[in-house]
Specification:
Layout (H helix, E strand, L loop, with lengths): L6 E8 L9 E5 L4 E3 L5 H17 L3 E7 L2 E10 L4 E5 L5 H10 L3 E6 L15 E4 L2 H7 L6 E5 L4 H14 L11 E4 L3 H14 L8 E2 L11 H16 L14 H11 L1
Helix pairs in contact: 2-6, 3-4, 4-5
């Protein structure tokens, strides 16, 4: 999990040395490179200088450079890591959330401190199933704007522990640097108690990335319906969408019929 990072596949498409045309290089976000044998060091350095900015911006593009005064070019194709969905708690609602997260191309981690719940037999499709204390896990897990966290623990005391650690780690970060989404399930009374405790401890945090009660209002009742509600809200945030019914983007049927009559 710690080694997940964006990667670019760079293909030399034009080069004065015809034997280098078609050669490929893998470049990771930390600058580490894996190339086919025989590429001159200065060629690799020129390619890295032009590819890393594109990798950081997640842009696919053909870039040009000169080699011994002659034109050369390569194509940079970026493969970003999938967004990370962390499901804290391994109860009944967590199972469909993890399944849907994987279907939607998230890298899914389920974490719980109970081995009888945090196991592969319950979460066969998850990328990671971690049996650990919540504090230990959230103290060390990488977090960034591609991180989506759903708190489905068995008690609000665990939610408080997790939120305290996350907010402490996000202290001093801008809104664009923080986790994209922290959703917390629970009753209004439970949620109110959690925020009452947190607002005195994290006075410089605006809580804009915390969504509670979790999910969109679709009248969800069953674990599967709740999972749909949660994942729909996550997609809304991830894709920067409105979450409104698409029907609202077009005139109603009655309005269309009225216009037809007027235009006759």
């Amino acid at each position: 999990m710690k080694n997940r990072q964006d990667t670019a596949l760079v293909t030399i498409t034009k080069h004065p040395d015809a034997s280098l045309a078609g050669a490929k290089i893998l470049i990771h976000g930390d600058g580490q490179m894996y190339e086919e044998a025989g590429l001159p060091k200065n060629v690799k350095n020129m390619i890295a200088d032009r590819s890393l900015p594109l990798l950081n911006k997640r842009l696919n593009k053909t870039v040009s450079f000169e080699y011994d005064g002659l034109p050369a070019e390569c194509y940079v194709e970026v493969f970003p890591v999938p967004p990370h969905l962390i499901v804290a708690g391994a109860g009944h609602v967590s199972e469909p959330v993890a399944q849907m997260g994987k279907m939607l191309d998230f890298f899914v981690t389920v974490v719980d401190d109970r081995p009888e719940f945090a196991n592969r037999s319950r979460f066969p499709t998850a990328d990671e199933v971690v049996c650990s204390s919540y504090l230990d896990y959230f103290k060390h897990v990488p977090i960034n704007p591609d991180t989506f966290i759903v708190l489905l623990t068995r008690g609000h005391q665990f939610d408080v522990i997790i939120l305290q650690e996350l907010l402490k780690r996000e202290k001093g970060m801008s809104q664009d640097e923080r986790t994209a989404y922290i959703g917390m399930i629970g009753s209004r009374r439970r949620i109110s108690g959690v925020f009452e405790q947190l607002k005195h401890e994290c006075t410089d945090h605006n809580f804009m990335n915390i969504y509670s009660p979790v999910g969109l209002d679709i009248g969800a009742q069953t674990p599967a319906e709740i999972a749909v509600s949660i994942m729909a809200e996550i997609l809304k945030i991830k894709n920067k969408a409105s979450g409104h019914s698409l029907k609202e983007n077009i005139p109603s049927y009655s309005q269309l019929k009225f216009r037809e009559r007027v235009n006759r």
